[in-house]
Specification:
Number of helices: 7
Structural class: mainly alpha
Low-confidence stretches: none
Distance between the termini: 62 Å
Strand content: under 5%
Shape: globular
Mean pLDDT: 86
Oligomer: single chain
Number of strands: 0
Largest sheet: none
Order of helices and strands: HHHHHHH
Amino acid sequence: MNVVTAFAAVGLTAVSWDDTLSRAGARAFRHALDYREPYCRMSDNELVLLMDAVLAMRLERGTKALMVEAAKVLSADQALTAYAMASELMRSDGPYSAEERRRLDLLALMLSISQVEAERIDSVFDLLHAPLESACKAPAAIPSAIS
C-alpha cells in the first residue's frame, strides 16, 4: 500500500464506519480529496479506480486490518492530516455519536496520535460545525443599503 492509497483508506473508512457508504458521505469524502495533492490531479476515472481498490481491500482484509496497514505507511504528519480529515467527515453531519467517538479513538490509537492531540483536532471541528444559534429563530431584519 502506498501513501495515496493509505490516506484514502482512512477517509473512506471514516465515511463508511457503519458499513454503509451514503451518497452524502461519498460526496463529502470526494470533496475532502478534490483540493488535496495528488488527488486533485487525478481524473474522475482514476479516483473511481482508487476508491474501488480501497473498498476491495476493506472487504478482503476488514476495516481494522486495513487501518493498521494504512497507519504503517503514513508519516506522523500524514497521520495527523488523515485523522483530521476523518474527524471532520464524522463531525460534519452533527455531533459525534458514541460509536463515531469510539471509532475516532481507535483510529487515533492506530495512527499513534495522542488523546490530547486527537481532542485538540476534534475541538476544531466542534467549532467549525457549531450551530450559530442555540435555537432556530427568524433572522433579524437586515438593514438595506438600497433605501
